Amino acid sequence: MCSWITDFLTDRRQFVRLGTHVSDLQHISTGSPQGCVLSPLLFSLYTNGCTSGHQSVKLLKFADDTTLIGLISDGDESAYWGEMNRLVSWCSMNNLELNSLKTVEMIVDFRKNPAPRPPVILCDSPVSSAESFRFLGTTITKELKWEQNISSLTKEAQQRMYFLWQLKKFLLPVKMLVNFYTAIIESILTSSITVWFAAATARDKAKLQRVIHSAEKVIGCSLPSLQELYFSRSRRRAAKTAADPSHPGNELFRSLPSRYKNSFFPTAVSLLTQELTDTHDIFTS
């Protein structure tokens, strides 16, 4: 699987008619102010027609960042390179400049002897290969390990603990301290938790759990554990996916007819899941 991260710089140019002749047209540099709340919306509307045409290649857009993800099977990279060239052509035709300096490629390949790949050339400049990159606040590595991401979350959460200590000095009610913790600290601990929790090591989870224990000592009440937060976020995410027919994973949450619910496979999966959960609870208690 290859992930190609690009950063767009919009060529914001407007035409102003100064006279009655075409030769009187001049270019002026305009655009929305830096930090304007309308900028992401306008960019999303402008790039709405830029989509992927192949099933194995996904084009993800958020504000002015674009990610091209390709699943390469049997060494066939034609779809990936085709969509990449198509993206470059679309940007050229729609007056958008691709910033090659902010563009990186990360390859996730678990084969023992992967074949060397030719470098990606963008705007006559080779695109650098990255060991990891930060995507929407989550650090993803080429080994799909989460130590680096969890260390970053732990550091940020510990820094915000300082403000919780300061609020404690003002003798605020417990409810207000809990609300502050939920909004400012717990939101960091649960960032993309449905993605990394299952693959995180016990040591990394313990780092985040220690932050929760520290907050409990400051506030003076019990707080949801990291595992409880994971379960609640997973249920919430599953409910949204099941209610959204356009979601790619919607079919995975399709309910079975009542006559099949007690058949072998649904029952066996439930029993195995419950057994694994009970074992994990005993191990962590």
Automatic annotation (TrEMBL):
| InterPro entries on file | AlkB_hom8_N, DNA/RNA_pol_sf, RT_dom
Record-linked Pfam families: ALKBH8_N, RVT_1
Reverse transcriptase domain segment(s): 1-140
Q: Mind listing the GO molecular function terms for this protein?
A: 2-oxoglutarate-dependent dioxygenase activity; methyltransferase activity
Write the protein's name: Reverse transcriptase domain-containing protein
